[in-house]
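User: I'm new to structure prediction. If I give you an amino acid sequence, what do you actually give back? Let's try with this one:
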Amino acid sequence: MRILGIDPGLRTTGFGVLDVQGATLRYMASGVIQTAAAEQGHLPARLKVLFDGIAELTERYRPEVAVVEIVFVNANPQATLLLGQARGACVTALVARDLPVAEYTALQMKQAVAGHGKAAKAQVQAMVQRLLGLPAAPRQDAADALGLAITHAHAHRALDRLQGVGAVTRTTSSMYRAQRPRGS
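Assistant: Good question. You get back a string of structure tokens that encode the predicted 3D arrangement of the chain. For your 184 residues, that looks like this:
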């Protein structure tokens, strides 16, 4: 399975691509999409840069699933709204290409990758480097995107194992729901 992880941001959006086969994670690519070339005060132009960048990534790497970080609400409502719009442009580009989109919070990703939800950016970078056997730590936005892809790979593998023993079934919304064994 090929996973495209996206860490959305209005100025810088990180991406990471992994191939997953069983428990093996293979790094394919990572980097950032930057909107600095678009006029700072022209939000629609910046959103188009993100949309087009995500579209190009899906064409180049042909992922089977995408993973996007869920936006958190911070102290600055305006920043939260802008981040939400950037995230929306990314998600729209993915679903326009019929990609299934999974979502995780930063806390969930940090827990899965670094072992605790309050991990610092440098800890996430170091763990991503270690888990993927990279020669150097990826930059922060790319490391977060790779961390999201790693999180989904681990969650998907665990849910598939549970499904294999009949403990979990997929619902129509492609979410997972635990079921009781018959006769319980």
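You can read the tokens as a compact description of the fold. Here is one thing that stands out. Confidence is low (pLDDT under 50) at residues 168-184.
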